[in-house]
Amino acid sequence: MRENRTSGTVRGVPGNRHSYRGGKNGDMVQMNLQQTLLTKKFYQLLSKVLLSILFIGCYFSSSAFALEPLVADVIKEQGLQVNGQPSKTDLRLPKQIVGAQWGLTNDACKNSGYDLIPYAGQNVTSIRYNLVNKYPGRRLTLIVIEKNHRCICSYVVDSDLIPGIFAVNHPYIKSLIIGPGR
Fold first, then answer.
1. pTM for this model (two decimals)
2. 3-state secondary structure of 122
3. What is the DSSP letter of 7?
């Protein structure tokens, strides 16, 4: 007679050498042990994934990717530090550089030593980089407009402000950025 999954005729008497094999308490201990092992494996896997992400993030920091040469000059000249990969967009400048968007952009460019007016109506490339700054969550973007591999304008956009378009060398931008050696 094998009741309670014990090996003898004794019905799961505590202390019996086979009482661990069955019954409610034996099943609970085994389930708890399995859950503990699964939890441990889950956290080991999670820690490996997080370390991999951290390693990849460090690998692709601002020094790990090649900057566009003309952008590198702007970044070095202005003492900026970028984060992440750039994004490029081909666009056509409007025939008249006026208005809220392009008028302000050209003003910022002029204050940085550039002028978009000679390039009105032409195809250009916009290269965008995220700038490292002192305030987490604040998005500052360096935008360099190039034509034939030559910088024709550079400015910074602060996404938290409207309109938020500033010359690269504007004191407000200089107060927010973290440059090399600062």
1. 0.59
2. coil
3. S
Q: In the structure encoding, which two tokens stand for residue 164, read together?
A: 């938020």
Tell me the C-alpha distance between 108 and 97, whole Å.
12
Nearest to 122 by CA among 102, 142, 137: 102
Q: Is 131 left (phi over 0), alpha (psi -120 to 50) or beta?
A: beta
Altogether, the residues listed in the chain come to a count of 182
In one-letter notation, the amino acid at residue 178 is I
Whole-number Cα distances in Å, 70 to 66, 138, 148: 11, 25, 11
Name the nearest CA neighbour of 60 among 81, 84, 80, 87. 84
Token pair in block for residue 155: 């400015």
Q: SS3 for 142?
A: strand
Helix (H) or strand (E) holding 107: helix 99-111
**Residue 160 contacts residue 138 (beta carbons within 8 Å):** yes
Which tens digit of pLDDT belongs to each residue from 91-140? Answer: 999 999 888 889 999 999 999 889 999 999 999 999 998 888 887 778 88
Asked if 142 and 101 touch (Cβ cutoff 8 Å), the reply is no
What the block records as the tokens of 66 is 């090649």
- For 137, residues 6+ apart whose C-beta sits below 8 A from its C-beta are none
